[in-house]
Design brief:
7 helices; ATP binding; 8 strands; ATP-binding; Rossmann fold; transport; binds adenosine-5'-triphosphate; globular; about 25% strand; 5-stranded parallel sheet; alpha/beta; ABC_transporter-like_ATP-bd
Length: about 200
């Protein structure tokens, strides 16, 4: 569950970028966040992730929530293999990983055989599958997604959207999905929050 109410969102310099924002996302719900370029979509994700503190208001999320963040690029560490990227967050947090469930997830993601490859050698689709694996293997309470599939061609995008929806159905994780694409927002989200000035 995420409850966010803000009178104003701002950066250090200048006027608020957004005013009077209020929304609630229920446990397990996928909500799409849309709006014009530069309106503040990524900033809202950063607020929920705890990275951006510039707002007047309240953010309520369950105590000790684990949050995963997936963006268009830069999710993976280039010096770690596909396998080690997927288990990374869990390993850092828990110290050990269940190899059988890692293998199962890698199979579900269609990444079998690529475990020892490095991110720079992956296609865009393989990269985003690995990023999904990293996020879901962590077993987070919340997933924040910032245009993760925007750079993919239409066919690959649809395949990965399906994978995401299947994983989401299995794990029931509260998800806020930023996209500027209305079709994608409708396809993935059970509701859409559209930001306007
Ligand atoms: N670090 C920063 N310092 C100052 N202003 C910033 C900073 N980051 C973003 N902004 C400004 O805040 C506004 C919102 O940016 P944000 O990246 O949240 O928009 P967005 O809706 O995600 O855009 P896009 O769809 O183009 O990715 C923009 O006007 C941007 O210039």
């Amino acid at each position: 569950m995420i409850e966010f109410n803000a009178e104003a969102i701002y950066y250090k310099t200048g006027q608020p970028i957004l005013k009077d924002i209020s929304f609630t996302i229920k446990q397990g719900e996928i909500v799409s966040l849309t709006g014009a370029s530069g309106i503040g979509k990524s900033t809202i994700l950063k607020i929920i992730a705890g990275i951006h503190k510039g707002y007047d208001g309240t953010l309520v999320i369950p105590r000790n929530s684990r949050i995963a963040f997936i963006s268009q690029s830069n999710c993976l560490l280039p010096w770690k293999t596909v396998y080690n990227n997927i288990v990374l967050l869990k390993k850092v947090e828990v110290g050990q990983v269940d190899k059988t469930s890692a293998k199962k997830l890698i199979e579900d993601l269609g990444l079998s055989g690529l475990e020892k490859q490095y991110p720079l050698t992956l296609s865009g689709g393989q990269y985003q599958r690995t990023a999904l694996g990293q996020a879901f293997f962590y077993e987070p309470d919340i997933i924040l997604m910032d245009e993760p599939f925007s750079a993919l061609d239409a066919k690959t995008k649809r395949e990965i959207q399906e994978l995401f929806l299947n994983l989401q159905k299995q794990h029931n994780i509260t998800t806020l999905f930023v996209t500027h694409n209305i079709d994608e927002a409708e396809y993935l989200g059970s509701r859409i929050i559209n930001l306007e000035k």
